[in-house]
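Re: How this chain folds, sequence and tokenised backbone to follow
How to read it: Take the token row as a discrete description of the fold.
Start of record: The labelled sequence and token lines come straight after this line.
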Amino acid sequence: MHRYSLKSTAFLMAYLFLTASSAWPQVSGVIREEGSGALISDALVSVQNTSTRTVSTSDGSFMLSEASGFGLVIVAAKQGYYNASVPATSPATGVDILLGKVPQDDNAEYELLDPSVCRRCHPVQFLQWSGSAMSKAGGNSWVYDIYSGDGTSAGAGGFVYTRDSDHAASNAESECAACHQPELWIENPQSALDSVDNISAGATHGISCEVCHKVASIDEEKPNYPGIFPGVVTVTRPDSAGHQVEYGVLADSDFDDEPEVMRASYQPQLKAELCAACHQDKNDPDQDGKFEEPNGVISEPTYLEWLASPYSDPQSPHYATCVDCHMPSYGGTEVCQIGAPHPIRDPETIRSHRIEGTTPAFLENAVTVTISAVGVGRALEVDVKIVNDKTGHHVPDGVTIRNMVLLVEAWRESDGAPLTHTGQQTVHELGGIGDPSQGYYAGLPGKLYAKVNHDSHGNGPTFFTEATGILWDNRIAALAADSSSYRFDIDDGSDVYHVRARLIYRRAFRFLTDAKGWTEDGHGNPLGDVQPPYYGYLMEEEEWISGPGNVSAPPAGFEMHQNYPNPFNPSTTIEYDLASDSNVVLRIFNLLGQEVRTLVNGEQIAGYKSIAWDGRDNLGKQVGSGIYLYRIEAGGRVIVKKMSLIR
């Protein structure tokens, strides 16, 4: 007969309790509506600042089976309600959380907060936003040039809405302010842009903090209505103290310490659907205020393109929302920088508020370009393939004046003489008719990618306000590819031949840029479209080199990957795969073509390679922020890619 001491018996009981309870839900309870006590289903329930979360069932109950520890904060959240939290120590049952409804006031006397007010608690986010295109949207000179012709000194050239539109008489205001000056539009729907000579404070805020964080809901059945449109985008303008709601995407935020300043409310539509308000819209040809009618032509198609792609599917490995790409993590760990201690969060949940779009860092990571070539008699047959493998919507995208130009050229190595192109594929006249050395690329070997609208007379391109149809649209959808073929004359094939493909992004058709005299973008930055050497923004560059004296059988090459991370600070990694043993030269250049660093220069065996660059030059000195090119030559191929260093 065994004897057990009280101490050992207590230990055994504790052990059995802990091991048994580990299989039980660690924290469970019910979500109810404050006041009525009604059960709330489909509420997100989280252990604050962790990935442990669940959804309440039809009877309002929830179980967090992986929640364990002392002093947990359990947060419940659902769109339309203030977030709420309770403390808990696992295991715990009967945990009730009450969610209060957000009053859907629409107080016309409420003034959206000046962003400087938000700065007091969110200085990092404010500084990011203040340098962004969002903050400058209200004074975008291109918008004024197209609307009223007075944004720049030559803005009256080309199309001007108030002067040239078929709809100017019936709708002189247009809907420009719905996206570019939304504070004014929220206060007074259907208002025109402020006079360019007298832009109000609200207009100068552009897309400000409360324009986004006061949006309670978006009607997803009406994505084509422009901007903050009444009845489609619902904005909460509080009319009583204690109801100062700010909507956000953090379902585990429980800030309500100062209800007169803000209370947190979960709004998942801020991840993508809100972006549709200004990045998805149709025109309204019959001017009846209905933008979902079939007679309209979609002007900005970005949101629906994303929605139709695998990037919108949470079950897809490609899944990414607008926020995931355009508001990347910047390494921050706190949302609020003042007051009581706040949760130290995973940096992936803290997003940059620069909200960048067609910046060099995005353009250089949009697509992949490859070249294949073979000699056929006295001709070099070239195929260029562009794969949209890194963008969650079509490229190019946005307003219909944006375009990409693919340029393909070939030359002999012995004397650098260009090869004569005898193929049929050339750049459309929208690439610019004139001197190629000044960026007029029409007629050169290559291809222009764009969406081109026509007006009621069948003429195009036309501005989206006048569009009644689409002449052609050859933009490349997400995960799709486009191939084009070229033919160059060669001699007897005994030389070494080079083929280079460059993909160049332009913010506007060249004829429009010239008509408006644009030398800066709408925010006052130098316009790459009119600057050498590319007269646009270089997205990708690929070079193919034939084998010596054997153009039909070039030596095995390699596969090059985009550096990661990109943008980077202080270091990044460049990866490539060699198909065979090769002499490899990998060098870094600045945009002036000056060599910055040689990373590899010598023989390497076949296989995967990974090379790090620490942001230093050949002398060991740190280089400054900017765009750099990395060029690798191996196995008869040359590839050039861009990367961004941000100090």
Observations:
- Residues 1-23 have pLDDT under 50 and may be disordered.
- The chain is about 15% helix and 30% strand.
- The longest helix spans residues 6-21.
- The chain has four domains: 21-99, 115-349, 358-554, 555-647.
